[in-house]
Every structure is written in structure tokens, then in C-alpha cells.
Amino acid sequence: MNVEQKMSTLHHLANTILYCVVLAWSYLLMLSVMTMNPWLAGSSVLGCSTGFMIFGVNEKSLPNSQTVEIDNNEKSDTNRSDKVVELEHLK
Length: 91
Description:
mainly alpha, elongated, Copper transport protein, Cop_transporter, ion transport, copper ion transmembrane transporter activity
């Protein structure tokens, strides 16, 4: 395994662990709301809203977000197909 494959594997492992933590936390929040206690339900909504406001992610803060500008004045179909290939490569 080369360094790039190891980093990819570690990145995937970290994402898997974080996914499991978020899933477990979501089920715990769901169970707290299902107790029909309005104070627990309200505190869950308030806590999630506050956490999103403080730590929420938007497109501009992501490191891999890229803005692609397309010139609409070009009339050649070959240039447009090249741009589609470039856009697919960015995904």
C-alpha cells in the first residue's frame, strides 16, 4: 500500500467512525423526544439549532469547494462538451 492509499483508508475509517457517532447521537435524540416530555424535546431542538449555528458547515467553508464559471457567449458545441468533461472531473 502506498501513502495515498493509506491516507484514503484512514480518511474512510475516520468518516465511518464519525458516521457511527452521529447515528448513535441521532437515535438518542429521537428516544428523548419519544418520551413525550416537552422539556426534553425543546432542549433537543434548541441544542441542535445552537450547534448548527455555531458549527454549521456551508459550501464556502469547505476546503474542496470550487466555483466554476461558464462563459455563455461561446457558441461552439465542442467547447461546451470539453467543459462538461472538466465539470465531471471536478466531482
